[in-house]
Amino acid sequence: MIDSGVHASHPHVGAVEESVCLDPPDGDVVDRLGHGTAVAAAIRDIAPGTTLVVGKIFDRSLSTNAAALARGIDWAVERRARVINLSLGTANPAHAAALGESVSRAATAGAIVVSALESAGVVWLPGSIEGVASVVSDSSLERDELEIDERGFAAALYPRPIPGVPKERNLSGVSFAVANVSGFLARLLEGRENLRGLNDVRCALR
Q1: 148-187 pLDDT tens trace
Q2: Which of 39, 46, 66, 120 would disulfide-bridge 95, Cβ 3.0–4.6 Å?
Q3: DSSP per-residue codes, the chain
Q4: Which CATH number fits domain 2-204: 3.40.30.10, 3.30.2270.10, 3.30.230.10, 3.40.50.200?
């Protein structure tokens, strides 16, 4: 997971194998925004047995740079990640080449990069790059539902539920649809789910 860090002590996250700050390289791993922690909790809720490694590339605001994102993908590949969750992206086409190279290296290593294809009419990178498990959010889907079509994946836009709180008052957005897809793919690779077979999942990658 490449994000804002993670609070590993959060009861919905559990053990984290490794957590490092990639940008700046001498920074701390504290999640000051809560975004990474919520994303990690959503993944763990669906795939509780997965091993989680976290690269932090933004700190006090939900912004980073494409170079840090590309380094994050490469770092995850170096850690032998099989699913790389990117609940973030850029709409700037100038970054397509650099991000595409990192996605290609990940695919060569056997890793699946999961990222948003579009939201609110905006097309995102690296989610729109060939070879990425592209994700859109669908408010009609529940968290235990996943759809696959020619665009890629569609998933619920909510993270794990909060007991006693209507889902409409929970966090929401394509970030969590991406996390939910990552959780499903992690379960698949663990052998816990069929999802009509890994070949069908591979065919869905853009």
Answers
A1: 988 899 999 998 888 888 888 888 899 999 999 999 999 9
A2: 66
A3: -EES---TTSTTT---SEEEE-SSTT-----SSSHHHHHHHHHHHH-TT---EEEE--SSSS---HHHHHHHHHHHHHTT-SEEEE---B--GGGHHHHHHHHHHHHHTT-EEEEE-EETTEE-BTTTSTTSEEEEE-TT--TT-EEEETTEEEE-S--SPPTTS-GGGS--SHHHHHHHHHHHHHHHHHTS--TT-HHHHHHH--
A4: 3.40.50.200
